[in-house]
């Protein structure tokens, strides 16, 4: 008996990685009876029946569970956005940060294609996120800058890469592990052709205890947070909201507001605040039209 991680789900079989070995396993009938599904990312107890075959005996409790893509035990989201080409999309990044925070994942922001912008332009782009205490790594797969930093930040995590099309996810994946890059490229190619393909989610072992899932779809990010809770997902607001005269201040319509004051004083990034207001409106609109 041993413990391993499910890296692939095939029809009736599961690939379980343990150390440097991969066991193609069947699951005990008991899972079917209990309606337990085995997901990619699940930590399992397996019994080897041959050099690369075995049975899954037990699924260990899940820490996290993502629905789209269906992966268990993802601990970190790597949000990849290009500095330029395509243009840096701060609204989409801020939205993605809310979504993955809500899923209780660690967050790593990767700003790709840094070779295409000046250092000062890059600094201006990153500053709001550093101010909000996010971990930000600028990279270029053309020059190789930052790639080893990303690799260290993945250590010990199961990470999922998220980001718009064309920002360089496959290129970065390739720099981290050629098999991962290949898979990421394959997926986007199929999606580009507009075919509806079965997405086989797969985990790639990058290093000891370090897995990366192929990129998650990104076409429609929907924030499932209530409008009045959104402010909690902008961590840099917390300190200044102590100066809001009203408890429960939403920092939007209120005349006197500590957060608005901090924006005027340049202590909170105006761009992040504008994105908050836009996202607040978007969520409010959805709440109002739900009935
Ligand atoms: N200058 C520069 N170009 C890059 C960099 N990384 C990727 N590119 C280019 O950007 C384009 C898109 O890269 P991909 O790696 O395919 O991007 P992707 O995010 O996987 O895109 P999708 O497959 O559409 O999801 C390619 O032409 C790459 O050569 C970089 O660091 N610097
Ligand atoms: Zn306020």
TrEMBL record:
Binds 1 zinc ion per subunit. One of its GO terms (biological process) is ribosomal small subunit biogenesis. Zn(2+) binds at residues 244, 249, 251, 257. Pfam families: RsgA_GTPase, RsgA_N. GTP binds at residues 112-115, 163-171. The keyword Ligase does not apply. GO terms for molecular function: GTP binding; GTPase activity; metal ion binding; rRNA binding. Keywords: Cytoplasm, GTP-binding, Hydrolase, Metal-binding, Nucleotide-binding, Ribosome biogenesis, RNA-binding, rRNA-binding, Zinc. Its main location: cytoplasm. It is an enzyme of class 3 (hydrolase). Residues 63-221 form the CP-type G domain. GO terms for cellular component: cytoplasm. It is found in: Cytoplasm. InterPro entries: G_CP_dom, NA-bd_OB-fold, P-loop_NTPase, Ribosome_biogen_GTPase_RsgA, RsgA_GTPase_dom, RsgA_N. The keyword Transcription regulation does not apply. Its EC number is 3.6.1.-. PROSITE patterns: ENGC_GTPASE, G_CP. Its cofactor is Zn(2+). SUPFAM superfamilies: Nucleic acid-binding proteins, P-loop containing nucleoside triphosphate hydrolases. Residues 72-219 form the EngC GTPase domain. Monomer. Associates with 30S ribosomal subunit, binds 16S rRNA. NCBIfam families: ribosome small subunit-dependent GTPase A. One of several proteins that assist in the late maturation steps of the functional core of the 30S ribosomal subunit. Helps release RbfA from mature subunits. May play a role in the assembly of ribosomal proteins into the subunit. Circularly permuted GTPase that catalyzes slow GTP hydrolysis, GTPase activity is stimulated by the 30S ribosomal subunit. Belongs to the TRAFAC class YlqF/YawG GTPase family. RsgA subfamily. This is Small ribosomal subunit biogenesis GTPase RsgA. It comes from Alicyclobacillus mengziensis. The lineage of its organism: Bacteria, Bacillati, Bacillota, Bacilli, Bacillales. The gene is rsgA.
């Amino acid at each position: 008996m041993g413990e391993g991680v499910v890296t692939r789900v095939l029809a009736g079989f599961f690939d379980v990685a343990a150390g440097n070995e991969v066991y193609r396993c069947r699951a005990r009938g008991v899972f079917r009876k209990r309606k337990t599904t085995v997901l990619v990312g699940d930590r399992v107890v397996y019994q080897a029946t041959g050099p690369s075959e075995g049975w899954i005996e037990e699924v260990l409790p899940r820490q996290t569970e993502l629905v789209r893509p269906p992966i268990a035990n993802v601990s970190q989201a790597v949000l990849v956005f290009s500095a330029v080409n395509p243009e840096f999309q701060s609204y989409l990044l801020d939205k993605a940060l809310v979504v993955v925070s809500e899923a209780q994942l660690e967050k790593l922001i990767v700003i790709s294609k840094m070779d295409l912008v000046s250092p000062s332009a890059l600094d201006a782009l990153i500053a709001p996120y550093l101010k909000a205490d996010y971990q930000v790594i600028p990279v270029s797969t053309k020059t190789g800058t930052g790639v080893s930093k990303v690799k260290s930040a993945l250590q010990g995590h199961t990470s999922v890469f998220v980001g718009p099309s064309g920002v360089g996810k496959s290129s970065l994946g390739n720099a981290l592990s050629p098999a991962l890059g290949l898979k990421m490229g394959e997926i986007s190619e199929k999606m580009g052709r507009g075919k509806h393909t079965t997405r086989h989610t797969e985990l790639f072992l990058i290093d000891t205890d370090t897995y990366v899932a192929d990129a998650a779809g990104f076409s429609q990010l929907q924030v499932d947070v209530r409008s009045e809770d959104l402010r909690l997902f902008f961590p840099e607001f917390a300190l200044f909201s102590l100066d809001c005269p009203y408890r429960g201040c939403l920092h939007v319509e209120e005349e006197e507001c500590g957060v608005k004051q901090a924006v005027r004083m340049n202590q909170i990034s105006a761009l992040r605040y504008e994105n908050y207001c836009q996202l607040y409106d978007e969520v409010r609109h959805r709440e109002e039209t739900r009935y």
